[in-house]
Each structure stands twice: as C-alpha cells, then as structure tokens.
Amino acid sequence: MIGAFLFSAVAAVAGVGALYGLAQLFRQYRLAYSILNMLQENVGEVQMVVIVGLVLFVLAFFLLTQRMVRTIAALNRAVGQVAQGNFDAAMPPDSPDELGQLVHSLKRMTAQLKTSIAQERQAQQSRHELITSVSHDLRTPLTAMLGYLELVEHDHYRDEVELRYYVGIAFDKSQQLKRMIDQLFEFTRTSHGSLRLRPVNVNLGELLEQLAEEFMPALQSAGMHYKLVIPPDAIRALVDPDLMVRVLENLVSNAIRYGAEGKQVDLELARDGGRISIRVANYGEPIPEWELPHLFETFYRVEKSRSARTGGSGLGLAITRNIVELHGGTITAYNESGRTVFEIRLPGQS
C-alpha cells in the first residue's frame, strides 16, 4: 500500500511535468495558447498544477490498487467460507507484499484450524470408543461374578463342593476385574503424562538374561524354551528399569500365551546404527498382515474369542507402546520367517 502511494505520487509529478512540457509546446498554436491563457487567468497556474497532479495521483493510485482490491475481496469471501466450516475454500495466490504475507498467514491458520478440529473429533471418537470398550469389558466378568454369587446367596447349590466351585469362579472373575481396572489405571497414567521416568544407565543384555530366567517356570509350564541372542559387547541405554521390565514382561507373556504351539521364544538384542533394537519373537500362528498396524491401539484384539479365553483386556500392548514412546523409542510388529516379531527401537547412548 505504501509503495502504491509513493509510486502514484511519483507518477503524478512526472505527469505534471509532461503536461507542462506539452503546454509549452502548444503555446505556438493560437487556439491552444488562448485556452491555456484563459485557464491560467481564471484558475491560476499553481492551482492548475495541483489539480492536474491530484487527478493523476488518484488515477495512478486507482490503477495500482486494483489487484489489491480484488485480492481483499477474494480474501473476504474465503474468510466467510472458512467461518462457515469450509476449510478448503479457495484462497488468493501468495505475493511478496504485505497482503501476500497476510494471505499466507491465513492459509497456515486455516490448515492448523482444520487439523485441530480433526484431532478434536478423533479425540472425541476415541473417548467414546474407550468408554464403550471399558463398559463392555468390565461388565462381562462383573456379570458372571454377580451371577454365581446370586446362586450362593439363594442357596442354589447341591453341596459344599458345588458351593466352593461357584465361589472359586466368582473369585477368579473378581481377580480378572481387578487386573482390568489396574491396567486401565496404568494406561491412563502412561497416556496423559502423569507417569515420570526415572532413567538409569542399564546393561540391556543383563536385563534380558535376568528376564529370561524369571520366565523359565512359565515357559516350562507351556512346554516352551527360549533362545537368547546378545552381542559380546555390552549395550547400555538410559531407561527406567522398572518400566522397561514391564514392557518386556508384557511381550514375553504374550509370546507364551499366543505362541505356545511354536515351542520357542526368541529374545534378541542388537545395535542398529545409532539405535538399539530389542526383539521378542514367537513361532505361533502368524498374525494377519492387515492387523499388525492395529495391535497397539487401545482395546484392539486380534482374535476376540481367544482374548476372552485368555483374559486379555486389549490394553497391554497400548501400555507397552506408551512406555516405549516415553523413552523416545518406537515399537512395531511384523511377521518374519515363520515367526511374529515385536521390535523395540530405542535411542543409542551417546
């Protein structure tokens, strides 16, 4: 705008100068000379120069600002459409002047607003799914528990053996309910930043060796064994040992629970460039490829019937992902050479 004003002023001065030169040229013609003398006597030479300069200034300013006016009009229409919820409204093209910077800022603001609204809708959908899933998963063991306790309350049992059977089932269901509530609480802590890491320098090889030995009874009970692959040189990382053990325990427990027919669990540690790789693999039935990206979603289950049978809540892997991400790492799942691999990648120690 300032540039248009200055350019219009320069154009007006140049135009006045050009007209003054033409006036001097026209003085050799009697008619033109008479008209110029009349204007000079009635209006005044200075006033004539001012009027002509103003006319030229206004004309030049009008011509120079037409593009700006069209841009403002288009911008106004676009803002109106954005206000009505159309975040894909056509915006004027960018330009190097101040108005172009305003257009660019408005485009960026619209894109950020669109992203924020999409994220808010996704969050609302996630909250709705969370409430629905929690209600369903908590109601299932609670209903069973109340049913058996009702039988006991109304003396609907033949003898003490049947009574103890009913009470035992109710107790198992109450334990399952407690595990679900504990996992839900843990998921909430890891998801909303209330969990604080206490990292220390840990030898990951020794951590995996200790974990494998602790799982020996569970492995033997399932008719399985483990294979440990650790490099000779120590691999260390700054991790919260309690939380990292929680992650690995969850992965190994899943490998035993869902891969018992494969008879083996692989625990592997390696350095991959500047990152550290920890892999837990089992040789059970492969997970369908299309389900692999969803494994770490909240309440996602590969097999609903299998999860119900084994008591899975659908929160374990979501908690695992949250803890790994708190450490600045990533976790993925993939099928490889007849086995299902869960791989954790952590930042290497500098």
Describe this entry's structure for a reader.
- Strand 6 (330-336) and strand 7 form a beta hairpin.
- Helix 1 packs antiparallel against helix 3 (45-83), helix 4 (98-153) runs antiparallel to helix 5 (160-191) and helix 5 (160-191) runs parallel beside helix 10 (316-326).
- The protein has three domains: 2-92, no CATH class; 128-191, Helix Hairpins; 200-347, Histidine kinase-like ATPase, C-terminal domain (Heat Shock Protein 90), CATH 3.30.565.
- The chain is flat and about 115 Å long.
- It starts with a helix and ends with a strand.
- The chain has helices spanning 2-26, 30-42, 45-83, 98-153, 160-191, 204-214, 216-221, 241-258, 304-310, 316-326; strands at residues 200-203, 225-229, 236-239, 264-272, 275-282, 330-336, 339-347.
- The strands form two sheets. A five-stranded mixed sheet has the order 2-4-5-7-6. The chain has a two-stranded antiparallel sheet with strand order 1-3.
- The longest helix is centred in the middle third of the chain and has 56 residues, at 98-153.
- It is built from ten helices and seven strands.
- It is an alpha+beta fold and 350 residues long.
